[in-house]
Amino acid sequence: MTSANDGAAAAPVCPRHPDRVSFVTCQRCERPACPECQRPAAVGVQCVDCVRQQQKAARPERSALGARVRTTKPVATITMIVLCVVSYVLQNVLPFGDWTARWVFTPWIGDVEPYRFLTTAFLHSSSIFHILLNMYALWMVGPILERLLGIGRFLSLYLLTAIAGSVGYLLLASPGSTSWETLVPGASGAIFGLFGAFMVVLRRFDASSAQLYGVIAINFVLGFILPGIAWQAHLGGFVVGAIMGAGYAYAPRERRTAWAFAIPVLTAAVLAAMTIVKYSMV
User: Fold this and answer.
1) What's the burial of 1, exposed, middle or buried (CB within 10 Å: 0-12/13-18/19+)?
2) Whether the predicted pLDDT of 62 surpasses 80
3) CATH no. for residue 90?
4) I need a labelling partner for 102 at 20 to 30 A (CA). Which of 4, 70, 111, 152 fits?
5) Which pTM does this prediction carry?
């Protein structure tokens, strides 16, 4: 004779929750799965363990340039924008000497405080339009490049072209002239670096963007027409951005990882060498 207790003991239970009876089985491993552990599948349901195994085995989606595609927001781009905005607020809240003068680049002091080559890219002039235009441009191309290149290559591109903007200004400045003592704040070098890289990437895939070309042309012209705009920084960032963008875009598929390390290292070395040579001539 079979007792009622024997029947209850024979009832299938969820392996993850032994106190729960479940008559629904996973289509993959055929183990019982309670409602909490069930996941909809193409046919029937699967347990959470099988779903996780499938996700680990699946090859991650890659962009056209080999970066792992993430569904999250463009973290690097947003971070750069936030840093610029916070710095702009501090520029207008703190005394000039406590923030702007501490981080802004000018050729006459760059050799003794080289960090200014980069930190100046997070500063802007007192005009609200300066930072608004730069941040708009960054938001226009940043997320696209970040998705194509990945966070690592995107940040190396942005930060090194920011430095290249300062180096470009330094190389074209004349010791003893007003340009040697001019303050050069702004993310324009990095922004033009992204423009240069983006143009190369578009060409790599036989695409075009008349709107982007128009924005670049207008900004270059304004740099020569309007006073107080460092067109030298625009040029330096653009040239280095185009070169780095070409390296990333045309890197052999099987060597993309090696190139992702080599390109920033070589770029930094060349920028440092040009800076040293320029200061040695002063």
Assistant:
1) exposed
2) no
3) 1.20.1540.10
4) 152
5) 0.78
